[in-house]
Amino acid sequence: MSTKTTIPPTVFVIFGGTGDLNARKLTPALYNLFLDGWLPAQFAIIGTGRSKLTDEEFRTNLLADVNQFSRSGKAKKEAWDKFAPHINYQVADVKAPEAYEEFGQRIAGFEKEWNAPANVIYYLAVAPEFFPIIATGVAKSHAGTDPARVRIVIEKPFGHDLESARALNQLLAEHYEERQIYRIDHYLGKETVQNIMAFRFANAIMEPLWNRNTIEHVQISVTEQLGVGERTGYYDGSGALRDMIQNHLLQLLCLVAMEPPVNFTADEVRNRKVDVLRAMRRFTPEMVRESAVRGQYGPGWIEGKQVPGYREEKDANPTSSTETFAAVKFFVDNWRWQGVPFYLRTGKRLHRSASIITIQFKDVPHVIFPAETVEGWRKNRLVISIQPEMSIRLQVQAKRPGLDMMLNTVDMVFDYQGTYTNETPEAYETLLLDTMLGDQTLFMRGDQVEEAWDLVMPILTSWQNRPSLSFPNYSADSWGPEVAEALVARDGFHWFTLPLNGKK
Ligand code: NAP
């Protein structure tokens, strides 16, 4: 959420420097920030891992990653040659206490060279089991440093359940102030997601409509065509509810449902978001049965290619009861949203990859047109498409051109590609820049994470205690299990999908 401000001298330490996240997201994001002129001259990256690499070898590996994954395409030699000297590598086992002393020495070296104190950002792109040991090691090595100059970025997943999230928060709180902790939910860095707040709070026409008087229900749907692939090891202990709903989808819900913050500062925005989570109706076991459904994909065909079912994926447990699909009906018990259902669904191996928020408005109180003119009649809808299409569409009724009176639905479209010519930054660019600028607006505060876990725990517990007998219950390339259709159909609705290319 940055406006062009100067970043102070900064050292960016990446734990997991040799890992997948750094290769695909972090270094390409830092490189693009460099190209766009955001990074200061006094800037150093220290990548770490146990792999034995020299600075030069590490740079060569990262160049290949940038060439493959950067939104700006293959790196131009001249630009890369300027960027590469900022990259350093240090062999380190995070379990070894001396590793943190070695970082300290390198950081001190940069400060001496720059003749200025540096802000230090530690990015934990490693398995969650290492979060506590790194957080403790870093804190000890910075015992005398001004807290304003040390930040720690924690990747997803933040905890496995409420208890573990609380324990991690407690450990972090022993060593850091909340203003030093950046809990990543990369969805919050996406352009279209940031735009939800602009759309809601910078336009006077929205607020009077944005409540139970005019809105019938809300859908938040994040569907993926990909399966788990080779990530079964991680995914089998997680599942769709933990992996997607507890964090990304509930964060989207918060942005849709939050009250206007007093101002656009990190704490005000995060206060209003946590209010939403606190107001959400807690589940009884009975409600879990009625309002939460799950699925697991079986084999099928996607775009002419045969794909395995979840239980047949590489290294999968052939009797796994992990859900690869989840759909849940939530309620927000406050004045604005009383009685308005929020349906959230997510799943893998579905027909198409798309992230869409649909605000379904109520119908007009009385239809004045004869039945034969309103064949294509649809209640107004606002569709916020996050990916792959980046757009906001308002669906309204209009008269079709012609001598007769025929109504149909048309889209008023705000399309990023048609409106803006500048390239959209990747979510990680926004988020990494914000860590350097010290802006926490797009990061999760500890209490937000715990409220979100608290909300989903009854569903997790109930599903764990009652493994599904019907898995697999949807085939690849479908829109999920029938129970998910039934969840919304019982209330008279159906799941909304955006037509390809947005065309109707
Ligand atoms: P990964 O490819 O398996 O990389 C793990 C990294 O940890 C490697 O760099 C490895 O380096 C390092 N490592 C392991 N044990 C170590 C030790 N004892 N000491 C020092 N370094 C050690 O994992 P990843 O996919 O990058 O994921 C990293 C984190 O980001 C995870 O928490 C994951 O949930 C999260 N995340 C990843 C993605 C993604 O797209 N990949 C997306 C969202 C969140 P060496 O082998 O060289 O030691």
Automatic annotation (TrEMBL):
EC id: 1.1.1.49
Boundaries of every Glucose-6-phosphate dehydrogenase C-terminal domain copy: 197-495
Active site residues according to the UniProt entry: 248 (proton acceptor)
Stored InterPro entries: G6P_DH (IPR001282), G6P_DH_AS (IPR019796), G6P_DH_C (IPR022675), G6P_DH_NAD-bd (IPR022674), NAD(P)-bd_dom_sf (IPR036291)
Pfam entry (one): G6PD_C
Binding residue positions for NADP(+): 50, 93-94, 156
UniProt pathway: Carbohydrate degradation; pentose phosphate pathway; D-ribulose 5-phosphate from D-glucose 6-phosphate (oxidative stage): step 1/3
Residue stretches making up the Glucose-6-phosphate dehydrogenase NAD-binding domain: 13-195
Binding site for substrate: 186, 190, 224, 243, 348
Catalytic activity: D-glucose 6-phosphate + NADP(+) = 6-phospho-D-glucono-1,5-lactone + NADPH + H(+)
Keyword annotations from UniProtKB, A to Z: Carbohydrate metabolism, Glucose metabolism, NADP, Oxidoreductase
Top enzyme class: oxidoreductase
Keyword Methyltransferase: no
PANTHER family: GLUCOSE-6-PHOSPHATE 1-DEHYDROGENASE, GLUCOSE-6-PHOSPHATE 1-DEHYDROGENASE G6PD
Family in the record: Belongs to the glucose-6-phosphate dehydrogenase family.
Task performed by this protein: Catalyzes the oxidation of glucose 6-phosphate to 6-phosphogluconolactone.
Protein name as annotated: Glucose-6-phosphate 1-dehydrogenase
Species of the source: Hymenobacter negativus
Gene behind the chain: zwf
